[in-house]
Amino acid sequence: MSRESEDRERDRFASDTDRWSPWAALIGVGGLAGAYWTLLARRMRAALSEDSPEYAADTTVDPWHAGEHAAGLIRAFRDVRIMAGARLVPILCLSGLLIVLLILMNLRMPKPDNPFDRDPVRLFPDADRTWIRMAAGGRCEHRGLFGLLRCRGPIEHMDHHYPWSRGGATDRHNLVGLCARHNLRKSNGIPTLLCTWLLYRARLKYFPARLRGYAWPDGRAHSVRDDDRKELE
C-alpha cells in the first residue's frame, strides 16, 4: 500500500471515529443511567419484600412498570425520593455535566476554508521556527489536565495545529511549537474546539502583546508577505 493510500485510509478512519464518538459517549452515559435505575428498582423491591411481603409482587412499585398506573407512578417517585434522598440530585447533575463535557471533548475544529486540499508548502521556514520559539518562550505548548498544566519540555517540532494532511495551512496562524513526544502522539488528529480554546487562553498569557493576534490557531492561510513577517517580529 502506498503512502498516499495509507494517509487516505487513516483519514477515513479518523473521520468515522470523530463522527461516532459523541454518540458512543451518549450511549455510554445512558447505559450507566439505566444501570443505576435498575439497581434502584431492585433495592426498592428488596426493601418492600422485607417490610411488606404481601405487596412485593405489585408491579406498580417497580420503576420500570410504574407507568402502568398513575398511582403506581406517584408511589414509585415517592419511593425513589425516600430511598435515594439527596443523592439523586447530585448524581443527575454530575451525569448532565459529564454529557456536556463529553460533547465538548469530541467537537472537532471545522475544516479551514483554504484554496487548496493540501498546502503546497509542507515545512515551516526558519523564520517561523525562530518566531514560535520566541513567542512561546522555547517551551512546548501542549496543555494537559484540561489546560491546567503545560509541558515543560523544549520546542523540538513545528506542528500544524490543524493537520497539513487534512487541509491545514503552513502558516503562523496554524503553527504550534511542541516537543517530539507530544507532536508524535498528536499525529494528524484533528484538534477539538475545547483543546484549541484552552491553547488560545494560555497563549494570551505568555505571547507578547503584539503577537496575540496569532493566539488562536485557525488553520487558515493568511496573506502575509515576507516583509510583513519581519515587521511583526
From TrEMBL:
What InterPro entries does its record include?
Answer: HNH, HNH_nuc
Which keywords are on file for this protein? Membrane, Transmembrane, Transmembrane helix
Q: Where are the transmembrane segments?
A: 20-39, 88-107
Give the residue range of the signal peptide: none
Give one Pfam family.
HNH
Q: Which GO terms describe its molecular function?
A: endonuclease activity; nucleic acid binding; zinc ion binding
Q: Which Gene3D superfamilies match?
A: 1.10.30.50
Task: Show where the HNH domain sits.
Answer: 156-188
Please identify the protein, giving its name as recorded: HNH domain-containing protein
